Amino acid sequence: AGWGGWGAAKALCESLPAGSEVVLLDGTPDPTGATPMLTPTGKPFEAGFRGFWKDYPNIYRLVSEELGLDEGEVFTPYTGSAFYSPDGLEATAPVFGDAPELPSPLGQVFATVENFKRLPVADRATMAGLLLAMLDLNRDEATFEAYDRMTAAELFRRCGLSERLVNEFVAPTLRVGLFKDPSELSAAVSMELLYYYALAHQTSFDVRWIGSRSIQELIIAPLAERLQARHALDVRGRCLVQSIEMSADGKRAEALAYMDYSVEGGAERRLEGLDAVVLALGAKGMRSVIGGSPDLAASAPELERAASLGGIDVVACRLWLDKYVPTREPANVFSRFDSLRGAGGTFFMLDQLQKRTERELWAGEEPQGSVLACDFYGADRLIAELPEDGDIVALLTEELLPAAVPEFRGAKVLDAHVRRYPGAVSWFSPGSYARRPTLQTSVSNVTCAGDWVRMGEREHGSKGLCQERAFVCGLEAANALMTGGALGAAGLRAPPASVLPVRDDEPQVQAGRRLSKVLAEAVAPLGIKPPWLAA
Prior knowledge:
38% of the residues lie in helices and 17% in strands. By secondary structure, it is an alpha+beta fold. Strand 8 (253-260) and strand 9 (267-271) form a beta hairpin.
């Protein structure tokens, strides 16, 4: 289900009248988070360590106002980040916090003058061309699609970004933000991500992390408990949807079949008399469901197109060391390491981020040293060329970590756990925009939720691979079913879920977009395009 599924379940449970039946099906053993994910030795594990950025208003409201949790207990303070290459420290990302906020991007420029350790100012200045393209990005749908068809690498070349700026900073950022190299990413989505997470406001990149255990245990579990206790939400784990069946006229989804692996050997089961379906799936799950649902594919061909998109492979690893290793920042990015084989890489010092509950990292035993969460994205070659868990551990402990921070040399691994997730993450490839699923499908009672979904008139300011976007999309997928009449009179009478916007664009950005649009439209009749869009 993820954030998209839980957002939809929350909105439907809380908006529809008492007695409405909402069922959440998920392939994980316990989608509610009540049962923690553990390693074979009983230590905590999470599939990818994810951050919570400044502009996550709906998730923060969920945590503090709706669930009544203490943000100081759920999240860490905002932290800085560091980028490491084979040459050592390349750059750091500061925490702006409550410092005086200057207009973007001037605030970021002035505040980070000393944060780039090797990249010359002349190279950093070449980012200016990309800022102009960002102003043009949303001029109209056709313009956005033109950028989407272009690779990010090609856009950077046309905008005049220096090769060194791209190789040493922008590309590593995208490899851990959108999980692919710029040559494999949509220029449009790359610009969306860079703007949302770094350029919209001086404080856009301020980020914090889960303060202990896991996101599932600290946020999803209390949400699930609330929805189950108050609204009788029916959560079924180890359940994989096989097919969705349509009405005779092909206009509505009426039933679905799924395999229930919570029983030994698995059992075929059905849900009949469906009022509506929210598909909170990635490309891999969509491919499976649409492959078994020919009538749905015929009624909603856009879902078949979405099912043709690829996914990104992920490797997650945790290390328990015999000594503490100090690092400049607790959140870190690997940059320009050939041994990554084209993947993006991160490492997080959990003993620093979760110091308050450090014993939990050791399953209640006495802590003995640093604990690291290390993740690799776009890891298809890593998975193919390093098939054994020990190979991944050796890559980290013998090559990457000591090259980044020499103090890792000599540290012994007391315990390690590696998991691989093929095709698990959305891939915003060049030209993928037209094939990404729409929130409202051609079938009136079927909607989609997730960070890769095109939200149409319900579009939100959160962008890219983003927990906030997935959660908001789930809320809006439920809203679309209610306000669109798919749930009948009860849905039409139900109050839609409230969705908070991100902060408004700053005045200079709004003015720049207006001016860019006026200039582009003035010269368009002459056949003149912005240089970064001209072939």
